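Something for you to look into today, if you have time. Could you write out one complete protein record for me, on any chain you like? The space below this message is yours for that.
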Amino acid sequence: MILSGRLMKVMYCTMCIFLCVAVVSCKDARFPDYTETKNGLFYKLENIGDGEKKAKPGDYITARIVISLENDSVLFDTKRMGIEGAITFILPPVGYPKDYREGYLFLNEGDSASFITDAYAFFIQKNHVIIPKGMNLKSIVRIDTKVLKIRTPQEHLMEVKEENAKLERGEFEEKKILEKYISDAGIHKPPFANGMYHITLQDGKGITPDSARVVLLNYKGYFLNGRCFDSNFETQPFEYVIGAEDQLISGLVIGVRKMREGEKAKFIIPSHLAFGSSGSSAEVVPPFTTVVYDVELLKVQ
C-alpha cells in the first residue's frame, strides 16, 4: 500500500514522540498533553503542516510567535510585526535547560506547536533580565508558534538578494511613473526631502496641529490615474489624534502636521511613506504605488 506524504508525516511525528532519544518517557501531571524533552522543555504539536523541511541549528526560521504568562496575559506577539505577522530569526543550538527554541527542532514548515518553559529560563537565561514582579523562578511561560518558513543560510542569502533586486525594480518603475505624473500635471513645486509633495489648494487661517491635539479631517485617497480607493467625504469627518499610531499612513501624518485649520491640500505620497513594498493589507493598493490624498483640515480641537 502506498501512503500519502501527509499520512507518512503524521506517522513519523507520532513515532518521534515515542522513539526520539531526546524525549523522556514519563509525563508531567501538570501538562498531560505535552511531551517533555531531556532538556526539560515541554512541547505539543497542535497542527501538522504540509512542509517536509525540518529545522536545525543555524537555519533561518520565519514564524508567528505569541508568548504568554501563566495568567494568560500576552507578553509578546508578532501579529503586528513584519510581513504576515511573523519574525525571522536564526535558530541557535540549545543553550540552557528549558530553552524554548529547542522546540523548533521538532517542527517542519507549516507546523503549529505550543512550548512550555519557566520564568528562570525565559527571563534570566535567555533575555538576561529580572523576573517580573508577581512571578517566581518556576512560573510558567507558554510559547505558541507557527512555522511559516525554514531556510538554510544559503537559501536565506539567495532570498535576500532576490528581494533586493525586486525592491530596486519596483522603486525604479514607481519613480518613472511618478516623474511622468508630475510633468503631465505641470507641478513645479519641489517635493519635501522625503519625496512627498504638499500642494495647497486653499489656505488655512487657523492654528497648526500640536502634539496630542485632536483634528477633524475630510480626505479622499486615489491613485495617479484618478481612481479613488478611500474617502470619507460622504460620511462624518475623521477624528485623528496627532501622534496616535496606526490611524494614518506615514505620509499623511507628516502632511497633516504641516497644515493649518481650514486648509485644503493635496499630498502626493510615494510608497515608502504610504503602503510600501507590500501594498495595503486588504490588497487594494498594490506594492510600490504612489498615492494621492486630498485633505481638508476642518478643525483642531
User: Anything to note?
Assistant: Helices lie at 5-19, 119-126, 153-184, 250-257. Residues 271 and 290 are 5 Å apart (CA to CA). Residues 5-153 form a domain with the Chitinase A; domain 3 fold (CATH 3.10.50.40).
